[in-house]
What we know:
Layout lengths: L12 H12 L5 E8 L9 E2 L3 H9 L5 H9 L5 H8 L6 E4 L5 E2 L6 E6 H6 L1 H24 L5 E3 L8 H13 L4 E2 L2 H7 L9 H5 L4 H11 L4 E4 L5 H17 L4 E6 L4 H14 L6 E4 L5 H9 L6 E4 L1 H4 L9 E8 L2 E2 L14 E7 L5 E8 L7 E3 L2 E5 L2 E2 L5 H13 L3 H4 L9 E3 L1 H19 L1
Parallel strand pairs: 6-7, 6-11, 8-9, 9-10, 10-11, 15-19
Antiparallel strand pairs: 1-5, 1-12, 2-4, 3-5, 3-17, 12-13, 14-15, 14-16, 17-18
Helix pairs in contact: 2-6, 3-4, 6-7, 6-13, 7-8, 10-11, 11-12
Amino acid sequence: MHGQENLTLLTDLYQLTMAQSYFREQQLEEATFSLFIRSYPPNRGYFVAAGLRQVLDYLERFSFDNAALDYLAAQRIFTDDFLHYLSGLKFTGEVWAISEGRLFFKDEPVIEVTAPVIQSQIAETFIINQVHLQSMIATKASRCVHAASGRPVVDFALRRTHGTDAGMKVARASYLAGFAGTSNVMAGHTYGVPIVGTMAHSFVMSFEREIDAFRAYAASFPRGTILLIDTYDTLAGARNAATVGKEMAERGDNLIGVRIDSGDLPAQARAVRQILDDAGLRQAKILGSGGLDEYDLVDFSATQAPFDSYGVGTKMGTSADAPWTDMSYKMVEYAGRPVQKLSAEKISWPGKKQVFRRWDDQQQRLGDILGLRGEIFADSEPLLEKVMENGRPLKSPTLASSREKFLEEFHRLDDAVKAVRDPAAYPLEYSDSLRKLQRQVSETIKQQGAS
């Protein structure tokens, strides 16, 4: 799903059945939908916005081609006049969004879509699918970056992500959130993410002796050799790596480092560091990998384990400790009328909204205000920007620029909110105007229900 294929049928059936009912009733006015997350998963205190680029690409190409229409006709669910209507359907609306790489918090809309209701309704499934995955992964990845305390972290997740599209988006989202690179070669080609790799245990085992495997690899990559040293015995592997490293130095080549993928990683790293240093290879780096995530990395940092970088895979690529959020896409306005949901524990905020980020004189974050789009607050920055108008994108930032925005913004976030365990709550207020509108809409709904 990283190519140019038509994805308009990538939606839930009920989006299309509702669309036909809208069409039959000629209920075709503009509707605004807000995309937001209601609550934090365990040990989360913030989210990283990601996935907007894919949403805008999808909306710009939104159409039902002949194959899609033939398939829908064959289901014998939809009327001919509705299918004819779909044949000419394009997205003609506007999108307001928080830029990729910026931080957002619970209840804050990361995207608001305004378009004729059939367009904005059908788009729901794809929008949630893309933004949910990438924001969830970017958030997880940012936590790994923070926990590593300045040591580079690389994405090793591809083989265990949930399918090919997820593998691509994990590489993209993790790089957006500060990872140094990925093992995913296609992601490198598609997104321009630096690619990184070492060797597997199978390469070592294909040779009769470990040291011969190391020598062969060093001969192929004299300027980029990283040796995997835990196939048999990590310390013996480190001594073999040191021997090869010294041989390389005599030839004018350079052993970049070694990788440890199993065992008591901090203890092994300390012992390996000593072996390398004693061999005069103080410049050789130690890369840690093997089922790691931010909880491991923050503990390694706290004990000053001598790792220079990390490869993080499965647990990051699946966001293992928090594999989903309660991200929702709710209608907040129809035909100029603010609307809201009143279900127990799922009451929504009506109306088109804006998020205002407040700063103090030293440009340190004070907190956010969730308000209505037309409001103005002094000493604050509105985060939602118009990024699409009349179905055409207005902005197209690069992945590199979004990554820079993330690094700048994340640096300014309070460490207590970034904490890997039990983060502090980020200050979020709700404007008086928004609260008043919610009360008014709620009261109107209750009166209508009673009449």
